[in-house]
Structures are given as structure tokens and as C-alpha cells.
Amino acid sequence: MAIDSHMHINSLVIDNSPTSIKHINDNDKIERAINVGLNESSSKESLEISLSNPKFYSSIGVHPLYIEGENLDFLYSLGHHEKVVAIGEIGLDTLKPNLEEQKRYLIAQILIANELHLPVIIHSNNSNNAVIEIFEKYAKPKYGCVFHCFQPDIEVLRYLVANGFYVSFAGRLTYKNAKKSHLVARQTPDSLFLVETDSPYISPEPFRDKINESANLKYIIDKLAEVKGLTYEETEKLSTENAKRLFKKIR
To answer: What does the pLDDT look like over 17-33, one tens digit per residue?
Structure first.
């Protein structure tokens, strides 16, 4: 069975949570799903869902596009819970011009993750090198890191691999123009890749431009297996083992 290492069910992004939860609970191909928070309210929703649904785990954090007015104290109050497996998603996004403020939030959340002995889930939109600069100058994850929906860059990949950090592949890997992602996938060690849907976003082929769901994880695994020259079963097993190695609280 597979682990959807990054997906979103909360009122901030999708309004059919009960249906989405049932689909995952009823899907015998999905072993676990990490429901990722984007701010305080969605992080709390994620934990609440995890408490009543054994398949679900929670990641808590403040996304760079949602930092306005957010206080990070909730990370301390929630971060020790056994169902909270990571701080994230956190990072940088060039869609907004407030990069200096985004950097402050990113640094603060990495430091909190280190205090709580938790890995981080990085959102990096056209900002891979800026995130790495923060790692090297100000705050570096001590308990693991994954760049989710990794924007393909071989030099950045080399840095991540050298530091034992993970790369996560999502729906874009299945697109016809994803040659750079295929190159990155082939060069990513078998011990350092995860798979995710990022649902309800980034649906894979053949569901592109439709609302995504965790059931579509099989299409990403299938394409990753093809690109890496592995079987579906090998890819599924490796991705599950890798997720449990990074997110140590998953049972």
C-alpha cells in the first residue's frame, strides 16, 4: 500500500471534506495520508481529522502565501501530538512580493521544528536556491526535510541528496512536457523519494485540470516506476518505506 505524503483536506481549500475522507478510508490501496496545514486554522482541522481517522496524519505550519496575521505559538501547542508528523508546509513563494517576511516565517518555523524534533515540508515556488541559502545561513532542518512537488533542478537535487533530504513527486511528473522532472527522478536515489497528490491540486494525467484526490496516487507511482526503470510494486514499497523513515511518527 502507498502513502500519500502530501494532501489537503480543510475548509480553506476544499468544501467536500467528508466525501474526501471517506474515499481515502475506503481505499485499500492507500495505507496512510498526511493532511498538510496551511495556517493555524487549517492545521487544527488537519489534526482533528487525524484524531478520528486512523489512516490520517497531520502536518502543521504556515504556508508562505498565508503568513499575514499568523502567530506561530500554535506549533508548540500542537507539535508534540503523536499524530503530528511534520512542520509544513513552509517555505517561499514568489507569487507575493513579501519575500523578506516569508523568510522570517520560514526561519522561525525551521527552528521550531528543530526544537520539536520534527522534519519539515518545504514549499518552494521559483525559490529553491533562496531556501537553500536560508538553510546554510540561518536555519537548517535537523530532523529531515522534503521539498514537496519538487521543481526540477539538478544542482538543487545534488544539494538535497548530499544532505539526506527528500524529493517528492506529484502529478506534474505525468505530464508530457515533464522531461526535467523525469531527469530529476532518474537521478534521485531510491532511498530519497516520496510520492504525493497535493490534492485537490495538480491532478495527474488522465485527470488534468480536474479536482485531484488521493486515489490518483497510483498514476504518479506508475509514471515514477516507468521513469526510474522499476516495477510499480518496487516503487510503491520504496516510497512507503521512505515516508515512514522521514515521518517517524507514522505507524
So the answer is: 777 899 999 999 999 99
What pLDDT is stored for residue 19 in this prediction? 75
User: Is residue 143 scored above 80 in pLDDT?
Assistant: yes
Its CATH class, for the domain covering 2-246, is alpha beta
Domain boundaries, the chain: 2-246
Tell me the pTM: 0.97
Which among 3, 2, 6, 1 is positioned nearest to 202, based on CA atoms?
6
CB atoms within 10 A of CB 153: 16
- The cell numbers describing 224, all together, are 515514477
Q: Is 156 exposed, middle or buried (0-12, 13-18, 19+ CB in 10 A)?
A: buried
Q: Are 31 and 241 in contact (CB under 8 A)?
A: no
**H and E: helices and strands count for the chain:** 9, 8
CA 246, 23, 214, 201 torsion: positive or negative?
negative
- Please tell me whether residue 138 adopts helix, strand or coil conformation: coil
13 pLDDT more than 90: no
Residue 124: pLDDT over 70: yes
Which segments of 163-231 does DSSP mark as H helices, in order? 179-187, 217-228
DSSP 124: E
